[in-house]
Amino acid sequence: MSVQRRLRNGRRFYEVRWREGGRQRSRVFDRKKDADDFEAERRRRAQLGAYAPAEPSPEPLSKWLDTWWTREAPGWAQSTKSNRGAVIDRWITPYIGHVPLRDLGEDRVMQRRGETLAEGCPHPQANQALGILSSALSSARRARKVPANPCQGIRRLKVQVKRPRALTPPDVERVRQKMADPRDAALVSVLGYGGLRPEEALPLRWSDIGRTIAVSRTYTHGELSERTKTGRMRAVEIVEPLAEDLEAIRPKAHGHDELIFPPPEGGLWDLTNWRNRVWAKAIKAAGIKAAPYDLRHTFVSLLIHEGRSVPYVAAMAGHSPRVCLERYAHMFAEAQLRTGVTMVDEIRSARARVCDRSATEATVAVLRSSRGHKETPPERGVSEVEDAGLEPATSTLPA
Hints:
The chain has helices at 32-48, 61-72, 78-96, 106-118, 123-142, 169-177, 182-194, 198-201, 240-249, 271-286, 294-305, 310-317, 321-327, 329-335, 343-371, 382-387; strands at 2-8, 11-20, 23-29, 212-215, 218-220, 223-225, 234-237. It is mainly alpha-helical. The strands form three sheets. A three-stranded antiparallel β-sheet has the order 1-2-3, with helices on one face. A two-stranded antiparallel ribbon has the order 4-7. The protein has a two-stranded antiparallel sheet with strand order 5-6. The longest helix has 29 residues, at 343-371. The chain is elongated, with a radius of gyration of 32 Å. The termini are far apart.
């Protein structure tokens, strides 16, 4: 590296020349002091090597995001790729994809968030976009493309956490009753009385069932993963009604790795397909609006109202105690105001109630048919039941 005085077309300047990456490079300055300072900085960087301060890159953010994706995405689950890709394409690239990394400071990142919020970006997605951008720029800092991550000083937006919607045991039993295939009804039991996430229940094998359910894999977005959402295997206690439901569908002979809930065409159930083809019909027939994931909240609710501790509930649900307490704080508060009831008693009482109701409705239907009734009475057949000397089914279960 050297500083040389040059004269060209009557103009005097100073040129700094050095080799980098096997190539000869140079830069010119009008003043010798500037050239000397630059040469000293280059020498200092050469001495520090990988520990030299990062030099901001003129590379556009969109180009770096492509590089970051190529490096990091192979280790992500397919669902993570889909979610992050959608957020990048919708809320990041159109706003700041053209901005050079060296110009991407905290003010520009804040401006991008304000623009997306003005365009209707929900707060949870705005926070997700900031998290993805922060992860990409942290990688850029490690690659010495930027001296610091401008996202680290930006606070996340406040988000109103929705209270989990838990189905009551009678609701669960009404949905199960409308399932044509006993295996689908048993799957509902696993979700509602075992607390598994739908993507954890679909790949269950008979070898996973013992005195507990061994939860160790997930199936989502057409990809089978030998790990759970949290990356930790857990064992879920099997209560008696759930054990009975599983035993009712257990084949006399089955392979060690045979699936418990295979679709009719074989392979693994895709959650979207099962929800559209089976779940949607059952909840419509039962007169209930709910998602399969709501059954997981049913399980947690039953444990809490049984009087279980926060660590126990968290372990069974696959949460950390902190997340469990934050998400279900209202349920723990409600449980302190009532006498604990065991999960088994809740389930058996609900099943008896639903069976009694079904028998009553069947009796009413027979009576109405014998009398030639064609109109539906306003109180779901209560008058016919009373005329027949029967009492409507009742329950002491909480709503």
